[in-house]
Amino acid sequence: MTPLALYLLLSALVFAIGLAGALTRRNAIIVLIGIELMLNAANLNFIAFWRFGPNPQALTGVMFVIFSIGVAAAEAAVGLALIIAVYRHYRTTHLDEVDSMKG
Amino acid sequence: MDWIVQKLWVIPALPLLAAGLSALLKQRRRRLAAGLAVGAMVLALALSCLAFANTLQHPGHGSPVRQGVNFFWFQCGDPQMSGGTLWLGWVLDPLTAVMLVMVSLVGLLIFIYSLGYMAHDENFTRFFCFLSLFAAGMLGLVIANSLLLLFICWELVGLTSYLLIGFWYHKPSAAAAAKKAFITTRIGDLALLLGMVWLYSQTGTLLFYDGGNGCLEPSALARLAAQTTSLGLAVSTGIALLIFCGAIGKSGQVPLHVWLPDAMEGPTPVSALIHAATMVAAGVFLVARVYPLMAAQPGGVAAVPGALQAVTWVGAITAVFAASIAVAQTDIKRILAYSTVSQLGFMMLGLGAGGVAVGMFHLITHAFFKALLFLGAGSVIHGCHDEQDVRRMGGLRKAMPVTFATYAVGMLALSGFPLLFSGFWSKDEILHSAHGWSVSHWPFYLGVFGALLTAFYMTRQVCYVFLGSMRSSRREEAHASAGRQQAEGSEPPHVGCYDPHESPPVMIIPLLVLAAGSILLGFIGTPAWPWFQGFLTGRSVPGELGRLCEPEVLRLMLLSSGVVLVGLGLGWWLYGRKPVTSADAPDALERLQPDAFALLRRKYFVDEAYEASVIRFQAWGAKACDWLDYWVWSGVVQLLSLLVVGLAWANRLLDEHVVNAGFDESCRRLTEGGTLMSRLQGGRVQSYLRLIGLALAMLALFLIWGCHAP
To answer: What is the ipTM of this complex?
Structure first.
């Protein structure tokens, strides 16, 4: 098994864990964490494909990932702010109970 | 052309208008309805007199003057092809003028009489409506210059006759009599219609007189007489015989006389007006009107035309036949009805043997004295509280003196009492022409015998009704119960209401006028001064007393006087000598000849013979039709309807179990599917994502392994 395959497998595992967390958990914070996990699994893929790709000298993969982490940080900040706003309003972070917009 | 000729149509239009207006009136507007009817008749009489005066101003020279107006009615068929035109019109000639005056005068008198006679009837308004309609039809019939217009009016008077016979339709006998009259006359009318169609197909016109083109004018007659049909009959004779069949039906000649006696179920003024004076005379008038057709002969033949022979024979046989039945009847109106049939026979005899003037003279005089007799009979019936059986009358001479006097005048006129009464002159004229008939002497003998019978049965009737003593059982019962109640001390009921009483003046005055007419009318047609005959034929004949003393005339006058006196004497000897004492006593004639009397009383079993032959055949045919209708036609219809019902049933099954059930099932499934699917749309983002994830995973798995599949 090549190192790339191992990285990809790890990344897939992390993505699957993140997906499972995002889909199965009811707590908004856990769901957010799941999303972050999936994002990072993607980042891991970028790095792995860059490192074992045809042109590892160019810093394309790193650049991508740094941007991605930046965006993720901003996204996490917005997400947490949303969760806090939701908590303030509903006194809960349980996603099933936040359904007042449901038709 | 004179304005009266132009406006001749107004005469029938006036009563028609009165009939229409009174048909719209409410039942209780009695005075208005009667006023309308009588007013219209007065105006019609005035106009008729003007028309009569007009014909007097235009004396003919050898042939009567005819003035008329013809107008186009409608076009039938394509004029380029074989289509023809139908014209109607009216004509004023002496025949029309005489009939107009007679119908409107007698009609007016009977209208006035009806005011009294029908005063207590609740359908007074309807009665006058029908009477006016009748007068309109009869006057229209008289002025018609087209066989078609004549036929229309002919049917109109037939209709009103039906309506008036059945005026008291709640009586089953009246309803049956109305139907019988309508159907019996319809048999004759069918022949008349056929004759009319034949005439039209031969000549192309139904106008009588049309300036040389009419069907009664020489050119058409010559054409008709020249052709022969099967059996060597001239076409003119065939048409004339068919038309005569109509007259047989309407004028109650043998063998279609059966309806006229039954028609007496109607109110008495109706019997007088329609079934004695005017409508039944319409048949005689028709024969007189188409007399040229009856008399048409191919050139060079001198024999008496076949149609006229038939008229003569039918008339002569009817005259004796009906007179002999009248001898044995007990209903006062039925005696008069058979007498009418017999007198109509005399008129036909006169027409056939002697020509228009002879028959018409008897028609006019008969109208007066027969109307008089009927109105007298109505007065008697009215006075005796609706008793019509002569055996239960008697002794009315003292109770009803005016009725008795006028009735006696009518009776003597009908019997033909010598010299004074009109019936004598007109009947003498008929016998005279029958005597001179070249074909056979039998009609003359039959006529003489009929005259004898006439005198006999009229004497019998007068003896029964006016002489002797009252035999009504009702009155005796009333008296007896009154006496009983008086003995018991209670208030006696009004006995007088069962005593015969004289009729009110409104009924008496028409009787007096008619009686005067019955006497005076005879003098316009005596052999000494035959003005009437001359007037009808357009010749002026000067009066000459010496003609009375010509041996042949004198001999016949003596013979008929003798016959009448014998009849009167025989009647007196049998019925007047010993007054009839009891209502149940057998008739004097019955004691002498019980079998013959029974035969006469049952009217020669003509009704029974019809019952056994025509009616049974008819009933059989009706039954066969009924059977056919019930089993065949109705069967086909039933089968069709069953088929349709079966189809509809199958259709319903299909609809319910296939179409509806299919739709229901699919709808249910759709709902179920919707319910199932709607569970997926739970509104939770996570569950959507879960599905997306699942699908993604499956897609991934498919891509990984599915692509590698061979």
So the answer is: 0.71
